[in-house]
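Sample intake sheet
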Amino acid sequence: MPAPEPSPVRSSLPTGGALPFARPGPEPPVGTRSVPQSAHVLTTDSCPPVPDDGPERDRVAPAAGERAAAAMNADVLERILCGPSGLGSAGLHPARRMEPPGAGEPGKIHQKRPEAGSPIPGLYHHPVGEPDPSRVTEVSRRIKEWALDEVQLYPPEWEDQFDGFSVGRYMVVCHPDAPTVDHLMIAARLMAAENVVDDCYCEDHGGSPVGLGGRLLLAHTALDPLHTTREYQPQWARSLHADAPRRAYRSSMDYFLQAATPSQADRFRHDMARLHLGYLAEAAWHQTDHTPEVWEYLAMRQFNNFRPCPTITDTVGGYELPADLHAQPAVQRVIALASNATTIVNDLYSYTKELASPTRHLNLPVVIAERESCSDREAYLKAVEIHNDLMHTFESELAALTAVCPVPTALRFLRGVATWVDGNHHWHQTNTYRYSLPDFW
Protein backbone atom coordinates (compact mmCIF):
# COMPACT_ATOMS: atom_id res chain seq x y z
CA MET A 1 0.00 0.00 0.00
CA PRO A 2 1.49 3.36 -0.95
CA ALA A 3 2.30 5.76 1.86
CA PRO A 4 -0.39 8.37 2.41
CA GLU A 5 0.34 11.75 0.90
CA PRO A 6 -0.17 15.07 2.64
CA SER A 7 -3.63 16.51 2.25
CA PRO A 8 -3.86 19.01 -0.63
CA VAL A 9 -6.05 21.20 1.59
CA ARG A 10 -3.92 23.75 3.41
CA SER A 11 -4.77 24.03 7.08
CA SER A 12 -5.49 27.44 8.53
CA LEU A 13 -4.21 26.43 11.94
CA PRO A 14 -1.10 28.07 13.40
CA THR A 15 2.01 25.93 13.09
CA GLY A 16 2.13 23.45 15.96
CA GLY A 17 -1.21 21.69 15.66
CA ALA A 18 -4.48 21.73 17.41
CA LEU A 19 -5.79 24.14 19.97
CA PRO A 20 -6.69 24.65 22.78
CA PHE A 21 -3.58 26.22 24.06
CA ALA A 22 -1.12 23.89 22.39
CA ARG A 23 2.39 25.20 22.23
CA PRO A 24 2.65 27.03 18.91
CA GLY A 25 5.63 26.73 16.61
CA PRO A 26 7.50 29.71 15.13
CA GLU A 27 5.02 32.26 13.81
CA PRO A 28 5.50 34.70 10.95
CA PRO A 29 4.49 38.31 11.59
CA VAL A 30 0.74 38.71 11.69
CA GLY A 31 0.70 40.83 8.59
CA THR A 32 2.40 38.09 6.53
CA ARG A 33 0.30 35.13 7.65
CA SER A 34 -1.28 33.08 4.89
CA VAL A 35 -5.07 33.32 4.99
CA PRO A 36 -7.76 32.57 2.42
CA GLN A 37 -7.78 35.22 -0.28
CA SER A 38 -11.54 35.51 -0.03
CA ALA A 39 -11.39 36.61 3.58
CA HIS A 40 -11.61 40.31 4.38
CA VAL A 41 -8.70 40.10 6.77
CA LEU A 42 -7.33 42.85 8.96
CA THR A 43 -4.09 44.56 8.02
CA THR A 44 -1.11 44.87 10.35
CA ASP A 45 -2.36 48.35 11.22
CA SER A 46 -5.80 47.08 12.17
CA CYS A 47 -5.02 43.75 13.82
CA PRO A 48 -4.88 43.96 17.62
CA PRO A 49 -1.32 43.37 18.87
CA VAL A 50 -0.62 40.00 20.44
CA PRO A 51 1.94 40.05 23.25
CA ASP A 52 5.13 38.08 22.78
CA ASP A 53 5.84 36.59 26.17
CA GLY A 54 8.80 34.55 25.04
CA PRO A 55 9.64 31.57 27.27
CA GLU A 56 6.77 32.37 29.63
CA ARG A 57 4.28 31.69 26.86
CA ASP A 58 5.91 28.35 26.08
CA ARG A 59 5.13 27.06 29.55
CA VAL A 60 1.33 27.17 28.99
CA ALA A 61 0.16 23.58 29.32
CA PRO A 62 -2.52 22.05 27.12
CA ALA A 63 -6.07 22.69 28.41
CA ALA A 64 -4.78 25.22 30.93
CA GLY A 65 -7.11 27.98 29.83
CA GLU A 66 -7.75 29.43 33.25
CA ARG A 67 -4.08 29.44 34.24
CA ALA A 68 -3.13 31.03 30.94
CA ALA A 69 -5.73 33.72 31.33
CA ALA A 70 -4.60 34.52 34.87
CA ALA A 71 -0.99 34.89 33.78
CA MET A 72 -1.76 37.30 30.97
CA ASN A 73 -1.59 41.05 31.14
CA ALA A 74 -5.00 42.46 32.05
CA ASP A 75 -5.20 44.58 28.92
CA VAL A 76 -4.97 41.74 26.40
CA LEU A 77 -8.69 41.00 26.33
CA GLU A 78 -9.58 44.69 26.27
CA ARG A 79 -7.32 45.32 23.28
CA ILE A 80 -8.84 42.40 21.41
CA LEU A 81 -12.38 43.54 22.09
CA CYS A 82 -11.84 47.24 21.46
CA GLY A 83 -11.56 46.59 17.75
CA PRO A 84 -9.13 47.48 15.00
CA SER A 85 -7.15 50.67 14.84
CA GLY A 86 -5.09 52.44 12.23
CA LEU A 87 -5.70 54.23 8.97
CA GLY A 88 -8.86 53.14 7.19
CA SER A 89 -10.14 50.89 9.97
CA ALA A 90 -12.95 53.08 11.33
CA GLY A 91 -15.60 51.02 9.58
CA LEU A 92 -14.44 47.86 11.35
CA HIS A 93 -14.89 49.10 14.91
CA PRO A 94 -17.34 47.06 16.94
CA ALA A 95 -19.27 48.67 19.74
CA ARG A 96 -16.76 50.45 21.96
CA ARG A 97 -16.60 49.59 25.63
CA MET A 98 -16.61 53.16 26.85
CA GLU A 99 -17.65 52.35 30.41
CA PRO A 100 -16.39 49.80 32.94
CA PRO A 101 -18.30 46.52 32.95
CA GLY A 102 -21.44 46.44 35.04
CA ALA A 103 -20.76 44.14 37.96
CA GLY A 104 -21.80 43.57 41.50
CA GLU A 105 -22.88 41.05 44.09
CA PRO A 106 -26.50 40.16 43.29
CA GLY A 107 -27.22 38.85 46.76
CA LYS A 108 -26.20 42.12 48.39
CA ILE A 109 -28.26 44.55 46.36
CA HIS A 110 -30.24 47.08 48.38
CA GLN A 111 -31.90 49.59 46.13
CA LYS A 112 -35.26 50.45 44.67
CA ARG A 113 -36.61 48.72 41.59
CA PRO A 114 -34.60 49.78 38.52
CA GLU A 115 -36.27 52.08 36.03
CA ALA A 116 -37.47 50.83 32.65
CA GLY A 117 -34.57 50.36 30.29
CA SER A 118 -32.02 49.99 33.09
CA PRO A 119 -29.75 46.94 33.31
CA ILE A 120 -30.45 44.22 35.86
CA PRO A 121 -28.68 45.24 39.10
CA GLY A 122 -25.61 43.11 39.68
CA LEU A 123 -25.59 41.61 36.18
CA TYR A 124 -22.06 41.53 34.75
CA HIS A 125 -22.11 43.21 31.35
CA HIS A 126 -20.29 45.69 29.13
CA PRO A 127 -22.33 48.79 28.28
CA VAL A 128 -22.24 49.77 24.61
CA GLY A 129 -23.27 52.84 22.67
CA GLU A 130 -26.48 53.18 20.73
CA PRO A 131 -26.46 51.57 17.27
CA ASP A 132 -26.13 53.68 14.13
CA PRO A 133 -29.64 55.19 13.75
CA SER A 134 -29.48 55.43 9.96
CA ARG A 135 -28.66 51.74 9.69
CA VAL A 136 -31.35 50.84 12.20
CA THR A 137 -33.93 52.74 10.16
CA GLU A 138 -32.89 51.13 6.89
CA VAL A 139 -32.68 47.57 8.23
CA SER A 140 -36.04 48.02 9.97
CA ARG A 141 -37.62 49.21 6.71
CA ARG A 142 -36.16 46.38 4.66
CA ILE A 143 -36.95 43.60 7.14
CA LYS A 144 -40.58 44.65 7.34
CA GLU A 145 -40.80 44.82 3.56
CA TRP A 146 -39.36 41.30 3.36
CA ALA A 147 -41.70 40.04 6.07
CA LEU A 148 -44.82 41.41 4.41
CA ASP A 149 -44.10 41.17 0.69
CA GLU A 150 -41.84 38.13 0.33
CA VAL A 151 -42.82 35.64 3.02
CA GLN A 152 -46.12 36.87 4.53
CA LEU A 153 -44.57 36.40 7.95
CA TYR A 154 -47.43 37.53 10.17
CA PRO A 155 -51.11 38.58 10.04
CA PRO A 156 -52.03 42.26 10.48
CA GLU A 157 -52.94 41.83 14.14
CA TRP A 158 -49.31 40.88 14.95
CA GLU A 159 -47.79 43.99 13.38
CA ASP A 160 -47.23 45.80 16.68
CA GLN A 161 -45.39 42.77 18.05
CA PHE A 162 -43.17 42.57 14.99
CA ASP A 163 -42.35 46.27 15.27
CA GLY A 164 -41.81 45.96 19.00
CA PHE A 165 -39.27 43.18 18.52
CA SER A 166 -36.99 45.79 16.84
CA VAL A 167 -35.11 43.38 14.59
CA GLY A 168 -33.22 46.22 12.91
CA ARG A 169 -31.96 47.68 16.16
CA TYR A 170 -31.04 44.23 17.42
CA MET A 171 -28.91 43.32 14.43
CA VAL A 172 -27.17 46.68 14.06
CA VAL A 173 -26.05 46.73 17.70
CA CYS A 174 -24.85 43.11 17.48
CA HIS A 175 -22.98 43.46 14.18
CA PRO A 176 -21.41 46.95 14.13
CA ASP A 177 -18.61 45.79 11.80
CA ALA A 178 -20.98 44.67 9.02
CA PRO A 179 -19.65 46.35 5.87
CA THR A 180 -23.07 47.08 4.33
CA VAL A 181 -26.78 47.05 5.12
CA ASP A 182 -27.06 44.03 2.82
CA HIS A 183 -24.79 42.13 5.21
CA LEU A 184 -26.94 43.17 8.15
CA MET A 185 -30.01 41.94 6.32
CA ILE A 186 -28.54 38.42 6.23
CA ALA A 187 -28.69 38.34 10.03
CA ALA A 188 -32.01 40.19 10.23
CA ARG A 189 -33.88 37.72 8.01
CA LEU A 190 -32.50 34.70 9.84
CA MET A 191 -33.38 36.26 13.21
CA ALA A 192 -36.94 37.02 12.11
CA ALA A 193 -37.32 33.50 10.71
CA GLU A 194 -36.03 31.83 13.86
CA ASN A 195 -38.36 33.96 15.96
CA VAL A 196 -41.47 33.09 13.95
CA VAL A 197 -40.63 29.37 14.14
CA ASP A 198 -40.35 29.66 17.91
CA ASP A 199 -43.61 31.64 18.17
CA CYS A 200 -45.73 29.58 15.79
CA TYR A 201 -44.37 26.10 16.48
CA CYS A 202 -43.36 26.26 20.15
CA GLU A 203 -44.86 29.26 21.91
CA ASP A 204 -48.16 31.08 22.35
CA HIS A 205 -48.90 32.04 18.74
CA GLY A 206 -50.29 28.65 17.86
CA GLY A 207 -47.40 26.57 19.11
CA SER A 208 -47.69 23.30 21.02
CA PRO A 209 -45.33 20.58 22.21
CA VAL A 210 -47.67 18.04 20.59
CA GLY A 211 -46.35 17.13 17.16
CA LEU A 212 -43.48 19.61 17.41
CA GLY A 213 -40.87 17.15 16.17
CA GLY A 214 -42.61 16.63 12.85
CA ARG A 215 -43.11 20.36 12.28
CA LEU A 216 -39.48 21.17 13.10
CA LEU A 217 -38.12 18.40 10.90
CA LEU A 218 -40.08 19.57 7.88
CA ALA A 219 -39.08 23.19 8.53
CA HIS A 220 -35.45 22.13 8.88
CA THR A 221 -35.54 20.86 5.30
CA ALA A 222 -35.85 24.50 4.24
CA LEU A 223 -32.34 24.96 5.67
CA ASP A 224 -30.93 21.53 4.84
CA PRO A 225 -32.64 20.56 1.58
CA LEU A 226 -34.25 17.21 0.96
CA HIS A 227 -32.54 14.96 -1.61
CA THR A 228 -35.24 12.59 -2.74
CA THR A 229 -36.68 10.99 -5.87
CA ARG A 230 -38.00 12.93 -8.83
CA GLU A 231 -41.53 11.76 -8.04
CA TYR A 232 -41.64 13.33 -4.57
CA GLN A 233 -39.40 16.34 -5.04
CA PRO A 234 -42.24 18.66 -6.22
CA GLN A 235 -44.35 17.84 -3.17
CA TRP A 236 -41.50 18.73 -0.85
CA ALA A 237 -40.80 21.97 -2.76
CA ARG A 238 -44.45 23.02 -2.42
CA SER A 239 -44.37 22.27 1.31
CA LEU A 240 -41.76 25.01 1.84
CA HIS A 241 -44.49 27.57 1.16
CA ALA A 242 -47.08 25.94 3.41
CA ASP A 243 -46.74 28.21 6.45
CA ALA A 244 -44.92 31.30 7.65
CA PRO A 245 -42.11 29.47 9.46
CA ARG A 246 -41.17 27.41 6.42
CA ARG A 247 -41.50 30.36 4.04
CA ALA A 248 -39.26 32.42 6.31
CA TYR A 249 -36.66 29.67 6.72
CA ARG A 250 -36.53 29.02 2.97
CA SER A 251 -36.21 32.68 1.97
CA SER A 252 -33.73 33.71 4.68
CA MET A 253 -31.56 30.69 3.88
CA ASP A 254 -31.58 31.52 0.18
CA TYR A 255 -30.24 34.99 0.95
CA PHE A 256 -27.71 33.58 3.40
CA LEU A 257 -26.34 31.15 0.81
CA GLN A 258 -25.64 34.03 -1.58
CA ALA A 259 -23.09 35.41 0.91
CA ALA A 260 -21.90 32.34 2.83
CA THR A 261 -19.25 29.82 1.86
CA PRO A 262 -20.20 26.12 1.89
CA SER A 263 -18.46 25.62 5.25
CA GLN A 264 -20.25 28.61 6.78
CA ALA A 265 -23.58 27.27 5.54
CA ASP A 266 -22.88 23.82 6.94
CA ARG A 267 -21.86 25.34 10.27
CA PHE A 268 -25.13 27.26 10.44
CA ARG A 269 -27.22 24.18 9.59
CA HIS A 270 -25.47 22.27 12.37
CA ASP A 271 -26.23 24.99 14.91
CA MET A 272 -29.86 25.16 13.81
CA ALA A 273 -30.15 21.41 14.34
CA ARG A 274 -28.79 21.98 17.84
CA LEU A 275 -31.45 24.64 18.38
CA HIS A 276 -34.24 22.37 17.23
CA LEU A 277 -32.99 19.59 19.51
CA GLY A 278 -33.24 21.99 22.44
CA TYR A 279 -36.80 22.91 21.43
CA LEU A 280 -37.72 19.22 21.49
CA ALA A 281 -36.22 18.61 24.93
CA GLU A 282 -38.17 21.51 26.41
CA ALA A 283 -41.35 20.33 24.68
CA ALA A 284 -40.91 16.81 26.07
CA TRP A 285 -40.59 18.20 29.60
CA HIS A 286 -43.72 20.27 29.04
CA GLN A 287 -45.71 17.26 27.88
CA THR A 288 -44.69 15.22 30.93
CA ASP A 289 -45.02 18.18 33.33
CA HIS A 290 -41.40 17.65 34.34
CA THR A 291 -39.26 20.31 35.96
CA PRO A 292 -35.63 19.46 35.18
CA GLU A 293 -32.79 19.71 37.65
CA VAL A 294 -30.88 22.97 37.33
CA TRP A 295 -27.97 21.29 35.59
CA GLU A 296 -30.38 19.55 33.20
CA TYR A 297 -32.01 22.86 32.38
CA LEU A 298 -28.61 24.41 31.66
CA ALA A 299 -27.80 21.47 29.40
CA MET A 300 -31.01 22.06 27.46
CA ARG A 301 -30.18 25.76 27.23
CA GLN A 302 -26.85 24.95 25.61
CA PHE A 303 -28.89 23.73 22.65
CA ASN A 304 -32.00 25.91 22.84
CA ASN A 305 -30.00 29.13 22.79
CA PHE A 306 -28.72 31.98 20.65
CA ARG A 307 -25.79 30.09 19.14
CA PRO A 308 -26.96 30.33 15.49
CA CYS A 309 -26.73 34.13 15.79
CA PRO A 310 -23.07 34.67 16.78
CA THR A 311 -22.00 31.70 14.65
CA ILE A 312 -22.67 33.76 11.50
CA THR A 313 -20.68 36.78 12.70
CA ASP A 314 -18.03 36.27 10.02
CA THR A 315 -20.56 35.95 7.18
CA VAL A 316 -22.23 39.17 8.33
CA GLY A 317 -18.79 40.76 8.62
CA GLY A 318 -17.89 39.83 5.05
CA TYR A 319 -15.06 37.37 5.77
CA GLU A 320 -14.64 33.72 6.81
CA LEU A 321 -13.21 32.01 9.85
CA PRO A 322 -11.72 28.87 8.25
CA ALA A 323 -13.51 25.64 9.12
CA ASP A 324 -10.48 24.02 10.73
CA LEU A 325 -10.11 26.94 13.11
CA HIS A 326 -13.82 27.09 13.89
CA ALA A 327 -13.80 23.37 14.75
CA GLN A 328 -11.04 23.66 17.34
CA PRO A 329 -12.22 22.71 20.86
CA ALA A 330 -11.04 26.02 22.34
CA VAL A 331 -13.01 28.01 19.75
CA GLN A 332 -16.05 25.82 20.25
CA ARG A 333 -15.83 26.32 24.01
CA VAL A 334 -15.70 30.11 23.67
CA ILE A 335 -18.70 30.12 21.32
CA ALA A 336 -20.66 27.81 23.63
CA LEU A 337 -19.93 29.90 26.73
CA ALA A 338 -20.93 33.10 24.92
CA SER A 339 -24.15 31.52 23.67
CA ASN A 340 -25.02 30.11 27.09
CA ALA A 341 -24.45 33.44 28.83
CA THR A 342 -26.54 35.39 26.33
CA THR A 343 -29.38 32.91 26.69
CA ILE A 344 -29.44 33.34 30.47
CA VAL A 345 -29.69 37.09 29.77
CA ASN A 346 -32.89 36.27 27.89
CA ASP A 347 -34.20 34.20 30.80
CA LEU A 348 -33.61 37.08 33.19
CA TYR A 349 -35.04 39.92 31.11
CA SER A 350 -38.04 37.90 29.90
CA TYR A 351 -38.86 36.55 33.37
CA THR A 352 -41.91 38.74 34.05
CA LYS A 353 -43.12 38.43 30.44
CA GLU A 354 -43.07 34.65 30.64
CA LEU A 355 -44.78 34.58 34.05
CA ALA A 356 -47.65 36.53 32.51
CA SER A 357 -48.08 34.16 29.56
CA PRO A 358 -51.07 31.79 29.44
CA THR A 359 -48.90 28.66 29.62
CA ARG A 360 -46.13 27.72 32.05
CA HIS A 361 -42.64 28.64 30.86
CA LEU A 362 -39.45 27.07 32.08
CA ASN A 363 -36.67 29.55 32.69
CA LEU A 364 -33.65 29.47 34.96
CA PRO A 365 -35.14 31.35 37.95
CA VAL A 366 -38.30 29.20 37.85
CA VAL A 367 -36.27 25.98 37.78
CA ILE A 368 -33.97 27.13 40.60
CA ALA A 369 -36.92 28.15 42.78
CA GLU A 370 -38.60 24.77 42.41
CA ARG A 371 -35.58 22.49 42.50
CA GLU A 372 -33.66 24.29 45.24
CA SER A 373 -36.69 25.24 47.34
CA CYS A 374 -36.00 28.95 47.57
CA SER A 375 -37.99 32.12 47.08
CA ASP A 376 -38.56 33.65 43.67
CA ARG A 377 -36.23 36.52 44.57
CA GLU A 378 -33.46 34.20 45.79
CA ALA A 379 -33.81 32.09 42.66
CA TYR A 380 -33.65 35.13 40.38
CA LEU A 381 -30.54 36.49 42.09
CA LYS A 382 -28.87 33.10 41.91
CA ALA A 383 -29.61 33.02 38.18
CA VAL A 384 -27.82 36.38 37.92
CA GLU A 385 -24.81 34.81 39.65
CA ILE A 386 -24.86 31.85 37.23
CA HIS A 387 -24.87 34.28 34.32
CA ASN A 388 -21.96 36.19 35.81
CA ASP A 389 -19.96 32.97 36.30
CA LEU A 390 -20.53 32.05 32.66
CA MET A 391 -19.48 35.52 31.51
CA HIS A 392 -16.28 35.51 33.58
CA THR A 393 -15.38 32.06 32.27
CA PHE A 394 -16.13 33.13 28.70
CA GLU A 395 -13.85 36.17 28.98
CA SER A 396 -11.09 34.17 30.67
CA GLU A 397 -11.13 31.51 27.97
CA LEU A 398 -11.34 34.14 25.24
CA ALA A 399 -8.28 35.94 26.57
CA ALA A 400 -6.27 32.73 26.78
CA LEU A 401 -7.30 31.67 23.27
CA THR A 402 -6.42 34.97 21.65
CA ALA A 403 -2.99 34.83 23.29
CA VAL A 404 -2.06 31.57 21.55
CA CYS A 405 -3.92 31.95 18.24
CA PRO A 406 -2.99 35.30 16.70
CA VAL A 407 -4.58 34.55 13.31
CA PRO A 408 -6.23 37.74 12.00
CA THR A 409 -9.50 36.08 11.01
CA ALA A 410 -9.69 34.23 14.33
CA LEU A 411 -9.09 37.42 16.30
CA ARG A 412 -11.73 39.24 14.31
CA PHE A 413 -14.24 36.42 14.71
CA LEU A 414 -13.69 36.14 18.46
CA ARG A 415 -13.98 39.89 18.82
CA GLY A 416 -17.21 39.70 16.83
CA VAL A 417 -18.63 37.04 19.15
CA ALA A 418 -17.80 39.20 22.18
CA THR A 419 -19.40 42.20 20.50
CA TRP A 420 -22.51 40.12 19.81
CA VAL A 421 -22.68 39.22 23.51
CA ASP A 422 -22.63 42.91 24.44
CA GLY A 423 -25.14 43.89 21.77
CA ASN A 424 -27.51 41.12 22.79
CA HIS A 425 -27.53 42.41 26.36
CA HIS A 426 -28.06 46.00 25.20
CA TRP A 427 -31.07 45.00 23.10
CA HIS A 428 -32.65 43.07 25.98
CA GLN A 429 -31.98 45.86 28.45
CA THR A 430 -33.43 48.62 26.30
CA ASN A 431 -36.37 46.78 24.69
CA THR A 432 -39.01 48.03 27.09
CA TYR A 433 -41.79 47.02 24.69
CA ARG A 434 -41.05 43.36 25.44
CA TYR A 435 -39.34 43.30 28.81
CA SER A 436 -39.68 44.66 32.33
CA LEU A 437 -37.84 43.64 35.48
CA PRO A 438 -39.35 41.97 38.54
CA ASP A 439 -39.73 43.89 41.79
CA PHE A 440 -36.86 42.16 43.63
CA TRP A 441 -34.85 45.23 44.68
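Comment: The radius of gyration is 22 Å. The chain is about 55% helix and 0% strand.
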